[in-house]
């Protein structure tokens, strides 16, 4: 992969006359409801509100889903992807494990806790889900280069998915990104551009470039409506793995906010299709204090998100102007949930607590989720008796700097049993 350093530097993309995107029928504005044909568009031509997919679902049963592949494509009849999606090389993400987390639950004070461990995806984060859907749609829409602005996990997923598909990729990252995420993007051999600035600067640059290169599919810009739908599969899997029912509470990390809103959408769709009983659930958002515009708006009772400049070790959540922030507020308020934030020190404590209780090493976003859960319990927001799911969305090997210097060998000893016995004195082993 070519690594370039950039200090600075719209037409929609190609639009086929007809497209096969499964049950997707149109793009619909989330604000005014105006509909347009399926295309590489992300803003409503009437009010400039965000567009999302409108569907016409057919007859979908639990049995048809269970008979599908052990990947997100078991839900392909609920996603904006071609009927031939499985015939093209892709990373086949999804169907990651749902862990009964009794030891973590005991530490937090939750009596019925599950952890959805999405570190098991091909590039070790949930972003493989959204990129797989975006790539499938981009291919059908006539694009030939896969691109993104990213805080790290998306960079990994786009570079890997493009390599698997035989596409070129162009990935933009903040130049301050963790070295592990730089390396785990560069290894796939596409073009990697390190941009002087934070994620919001990178995102603005991506929007400009998307307008200039009509064959470039920026997964979270010009094909964003399709990309975002991939997060629904987290909600689908949680419900299926719980035995075709919805949890009473779920805690989701918030960056752009799209994941939380789409998990909510996934639960709603399963209920409306009769795949699960449409029981009440509460959805909670988790942010780092150093980048917590949605949590601050929730705390202050506002509907508008005031942008902030990120300053946190949780760089995968460091989006100071989250596109879906207002919709996160809508979802948590509608379901009776909340959005809270935690300090960098609490994030590290959350990473270590999850690792030592359940054997799951999460990146900083997972530390945010665990630590925020503890804060929500202490504040009386989360019901300790309700069935609860925590979303762990990325692998700790990507953010080793967060725990470096705080953990290490218990002791360094000579190669004698006597020295080992001396080192073990006082330890409960």
Describe the structure.
This protein has helices spanning 62-66, 102-108, 127-141, 153-165, 179-186, 199-212, 224-229, 232-241, 258-272, 293-299, 325-335, 344-358, 364-378, 417-424, and strands at 2-6, 24-29, 35-36, 51-55, 98-100, 113-117, 145-149, 168-174, 191-195, 216-218, 249-253, 282-288, 339-342, 388-392. With 429 residues, it is α/β, with parallel strands linked by helices. The chain has 2 domains: 2-92 and 126-227, Rossmann fold (3-Layer(aba) Sandwich); 98-124 and 230-402, Rossmann fold (3-Layer(aba) Sandwich). The longest helix has 15 residues, at 127-141. The N and C termini lie far apart (47 Å). Mean pLDDT is 95; it is low at 2-11.
H and E string: EEEEHEHEHEHEHEHEHHEHEHHEHHEH
User: How far is the first residue's CA from the last residue's CA?
Assistant: 47 Å
Helix content: 25-40%
- The domain count comes to 2
Number of DSSP helical runs: 14
Radius of gyration: 21 Å
Q: Any idea of the CATH class of the largest domain?
A: Alpha Beta
Which fold does the CATH topology of the largest domain refer to? Rossmann fold
How much of the residues is beta strand, in percent? 15-25%
* Total E-strand runs: 14
Shape: globular
Largest β-sheet summary: 6 strands, mixed
Summing up helix and strand content along with how strands pair, one would put the structural category as alpha/beta
| CATH architect. name of the largest domain | 3-Layer(aba) Sandwich
Mean pLDDT rating: 95
């Amino acid at each position: 992969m070519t690594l370039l350093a950039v200090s600075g530097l719209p037409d929609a993309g190609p639009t086929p006359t007809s497209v096969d995107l499964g049950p997707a029928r149109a793009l619909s504005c989330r604000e005014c409801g105006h509909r347009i044909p399926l295309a590489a568009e992300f803003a409503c031509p009437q009010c400039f509100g965000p567009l999302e997919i409108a569907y016409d679902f057919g007859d979908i049963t639990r049995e048809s889903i269970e008979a599908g592949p052990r990947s997100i494509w078991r839900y392909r009849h609920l996603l904006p992807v071609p009927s031939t999606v499985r015939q093209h090389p892709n990373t086949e993400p999804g169907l990651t494990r749902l862990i009964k987390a009794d030891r973590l639950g005991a530490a937090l004070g939750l009596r019925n806790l599950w952890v959805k461990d999405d570190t098991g995806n091909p590039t070790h984060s949930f972003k493989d889900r959204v990129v797989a859907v975006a790539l499938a749609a981009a291919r059908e829409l006539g694009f030939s280069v896969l691109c993104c602005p990213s805080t790290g996990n998306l960079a990994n997923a786009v570079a890997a998915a493009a390599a698997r598909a035989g596409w070129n990729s162009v990935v933009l990252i903040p130049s301050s990104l963790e070295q592990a995420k730089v390396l785990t993007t560069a290894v796939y051999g596409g073009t990697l551009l390190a941009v002087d600035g934070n994620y919001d600067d990178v995102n603005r640059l991506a929007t400009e470039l998307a307008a200039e290169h009509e064959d470039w599919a920026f997964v979270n810009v010009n094909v964003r409506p399709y990309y975002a739908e991939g997060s629904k599969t987290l909600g689908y899997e949680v419900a299926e793995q719980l035995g075709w029912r919805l949890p009473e509470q779920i805690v989701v990390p918030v960056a752009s906010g799209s994941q939380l809103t789409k998990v909510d959408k996934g639960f709603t769709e399963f209920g409306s299709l009769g795949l699960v009983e449409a029981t009440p659930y509460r959805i909670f958002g988790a942010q780092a204090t150093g980048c917590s515009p949605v949590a601050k708006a929730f705390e202050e009772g506002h509907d508008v998100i005031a942008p902030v400049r990120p300053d946190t070790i949780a760089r995968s959540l460091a989006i100071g102007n989250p596109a879906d922030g207002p919709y996160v507020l809508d979802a948590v308020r509608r379901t009776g949930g909340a959005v809270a934030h935690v300090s960098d020190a609490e994030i590290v404590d959350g990473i270590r607590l999850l690792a030592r209780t359940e054997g799951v090493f999460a990146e900083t976003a997972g530390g945010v989720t665990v630590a925020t859960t503890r804060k929500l319990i202490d504040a009386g927001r989360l019901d300790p008796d309700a069935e609860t799911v925590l979303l762990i969305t990325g692998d700790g090997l990507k953010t080793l700097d967060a725990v470096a210097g705080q953990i290490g060998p218990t002791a360094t000893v000579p190669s004698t049993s006597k020295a080992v016995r001396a080192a073990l004195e006082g330890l409960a082993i």
